[in-house]
């Protein structure tokens, strides 16, 4: 199994830049898995995507994978470093799945992560630090992403929190919580 690293934190904190730095440091062929898709009518969204594209080295392979993340990871070669940016967008892309389908999607993803021989870097947003969303879909998103991040963090070799322009290695300064069946 390759190295698995989770990079989490709030919006605009530097998560993606830190993940990109780690990908470059791996010395491996980098496969950038973008979970976002282009939306031509949304200029602000296009600008965000362009900012990410401009930072990436030209030799990186970029794949747009809005939903089929597990299959994409399963197809990677051990000699690569896969950077998935971001899990929050992936969760949003699958919000219409019912609870049973979502549970199956997460289970498949977590098993795949543990079987892949490539190095993997996952960027994930922290959404649960604010108010509880006033609408059901917002609460579903927040809860699904929070649970996914916790479950993934439990199996990753290293977990970073990026905030205020600093990357903190939680794996060395934190205490891992006991495994929990419900991840509340």
From TrEMBL:
Catalyzes ATP-dependent phosphorylation of adenosylcobinamide and addition of GMP to adenosylcobinamide phosphate. InterPro entries: CobU/CobP (IPR003203), P-loop_NTPase (IPR027417). It catalyses: adenosylcob(III)inamide + ATP = adenosylcob(III)inamide phosphate + ADP + H(+); adenosylcob(III)inamide + GTP = adenosylcob(III)inamide phosphate + GDP + H(+); adenosylcob(III)inamide phosphate + GTP + H(+) = adenosylcob(III)inamide-GDP + diphosphate. Coiled coil: none annotated. Keywords: ATP-binding, Cobalamin biosynthesis, GTP-binding, Kinase, Nucleotide-binding, Nucleotidyltransferase, Transferase. CDD domains: CobU. Belongs to the CobU/CobP family. Pathway: Cofactor biosynthesis; adenosylcobalamin biosynthesis; adenosylcobalamin from cob(II)yrinate a,c-diamide: step 6/7; Cofactor biosynthesis; adenosylcobalamin biosynthesis; adenosylcobalamin from cob(II)yrinate a,c-diamide: step 5/7. It is an enzyme of class 2 (transferase). It holds the Pfam family CobU. Its EC number is 2.7.1.156, 2.7.7.62. One of its GO terms (molecular function) is adenosylcobinamide kinase activity. This is Adenosylcobinamide kinase.
């Amino acid at each position: 199994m390759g190295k698995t690293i989770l990079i989490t934190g709030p919006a605009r904190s530097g998560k993606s830049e830190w993940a990109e730095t780690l990908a470059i440091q791996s010395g491996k062929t980098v496969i950038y898995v973008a979970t976002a898709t282009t939306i031509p009518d949304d200029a602000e969204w296009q600008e965000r995507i362009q900012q990410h594209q401009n930072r990436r080295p030209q030799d990186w392979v970029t794949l747009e994978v809005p939903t089929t993340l597990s299959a994409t990871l399963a197809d990677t070669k051990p000699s690569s470093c896969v950077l998935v940016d971001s899990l929050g967008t992936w969760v949003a892309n699958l919000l219409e799945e019912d609870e049973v389908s979502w549970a199956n999607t997460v289970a498949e993803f977590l098993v795949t992560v543990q079987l892949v021989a490539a190095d993997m870097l996952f960027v994930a947003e922290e959404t649960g630090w604010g108010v509880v969303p006033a609408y059901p879909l917002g609460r579903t998103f927040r809860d699904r992403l929070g649970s996914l991040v916790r479950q993934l963090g439990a199996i990753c070799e290293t977990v970073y929190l990026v905030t205020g322009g600093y990357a903190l290695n939680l794996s060395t300064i934190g205490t891992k919580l006991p495994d929990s069946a419900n991840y509340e």
